[in-house]
Amino acid sequence: MEDKLLRHGSIIFFATIISFFFAYVFQFYMARELGPESYGILGSMLSLLYVFSVPASVVTTTLAQVVSEQKGKEEYGKIKSILLISVKKLMYIGVIIFILLMAISPFLKNVLNLPSETPVIILGFSLIFITILPSPRGVLQGMQEFGSLGFNMAMDKPALLLCGILFTYLGMGIDGAILSYGIAALVLLIIALLPLRFIFKKESEKVDLSVYKYASPVLVLILCITVMSSIDIIFVRKYFPAEVSGYFTAMKMLGEVIYFLALALGGVLLPKVSELETLKVAHGFLLRKTLIYFGILLAAILSAYAFAPELMITILFGKVYSSVAGYLIWYALAMGLLSLAIVFMFYDVSAKRTAFRYPLVMFTFLEIVLLMVFHETIGQIIGIQIAVFFVLLLSVITINRRYMSHAQDG
Questions:
Q1: Exposure winner among 2, 67, 82, 294, fewest CB in 10 A?
Q2: Residue 90 in contact with residue 132, Cβ under 8 Å?
Q3: What's the CA dihedral at 331, 48, 362, 410 to 10 degrees?
Q4: pLDDT tens, 200-245?
Q5: DSSP state for residue 203 in the 8-state scheme
Q6: Tens of pLDDT along 385-398?
Q7: Burial degree of 398 (CB within 10 A; 0-12, 13-18, 19+)
Q8: DSSP code at position 240
């Protein structure tokens, strides 16, 4: 199991690296092509995208947990039913989100200082496909088909980049940049279904919908960490000039490398812990190894950001964005603290431990309230995040130790 964790983790890690590379090429291209003001709009739209795609992300994590149990029983007919039901439900959710965003687009235009409602409407359309994509990915993850899942993840951002270059070349500007996410998701949806062809040959079996009992803690986890990692750009967009939001978005893109690495490792950890939990086999060693892998990566990234922040931002985004270089290491530290907490919480939810929900919800609201009060400078915003994420990390570590202590006593 330990060797498989390393092998599967390596597959997802390298797929994530490839995805990151092309994602940042996309960001670098858009930063230079659109300019700071329009690039700031893209940053705020991406934050909305992350928040509104939470239902789909919840389904991904829930499906991975549920399918891993069905796989252990070789109940592939039930896996087929789960896949079909989830695709149908996510399609409905995507359409509802599209309609909702169209309805509130005038409000968001004013709040985010957008030039028109069009970016919000295009985002809503894109979210239809973005919302469906996690269904087949969740099934691949739950079946531990990390080769196919890794390939799908690796192709994600190259497809996004190609669409982005095409649409901006056609003169669509910021609208084309946002639409790229939807069209790329459609392409990836088709690719994700191909390795699942054998599932469709199985006869559907009735599935107990109580398998979605895991959705509640997963919903809390995904929603809260998405808000905690994304809410900052909304406040920057609201209270700072458009150019500053563009600079902040560039810095955020680099800082979030850490956050997305934690999500990738958590995605590998989840089905493995869930399967061992079902078999009543000890799995604490998986958490320890994951923390070691992530700790090494975190130390390397923080070192790079500490010693050459201006050089990295200038090379990747351009000299005009270098004014935020001094904040990069501190923002990366904030993301590192949050990401360490995420690893612990992914482990807990995989083992059906849900006590983390209470401090997580509390600190999510605390971050929002503090940012509503204190947002005079970029440094102030980052300082609040460091403080909140640090205390959250201490809380989830304490909860994890209590679980371990009770397990030993039992």
A1: 2
A2: yes
A3: -90
A4: 877 777 766 555 555 678 778 888 998 899 899 889 888 888 788 8
A5: P
A6: 999 999 999 999 99
A7: exposed
A8: S
Which residue reads 């390795």 in tokens?
A: 195
The helix/strand/coil state of 376 is: coil
Instruction: Take residue 319 and report the two structure tokens written for it.
Output: 């000299």
Please count the structural domains in the chain: 1
Band of pLDDT at residue 407, cut at 50, 70 and 90: low
The answer to whether residues 92 and 165 touch, using CB atoms and an 8 Å cutoff, is no
CA-based end-to-end distance of the chain:
24
Distance, CA of 192 to CA of 399 (rounded, Å): 36
Which residues of 3-49 form beta strands (DSSP E)?
Answer: none
Q: What is the spatial distance between Cα 288 and Cα 21, in angstroms, rounded to a whole number? A: 28
- For 120, half-sphere exposure in the C-beta direction (CA atoms, 13 angstrom radius) is 20
* pLDDT beyond 70 at 252: yes
CB 151 within 8 A of CB 176: no
Range of the domain at 332: 2-202+210-409
Residue 144 dihedral angles phi and psi, to the nearest 5°: 60, 35
- pLDDT confidence band for 268 (50 / 70 / 90): confident
Kindly report the pTM of this predicted structure. Answer: 0.70
* Contacts (Cβ under 8 Å, ≥6 apart) of 377: none
Nearest to 63 by CA among 48, 78, 74: 78
Q: Say how many C-beta atoms besides its own lie within 10 A of residue 276's C-beta.
A: 19
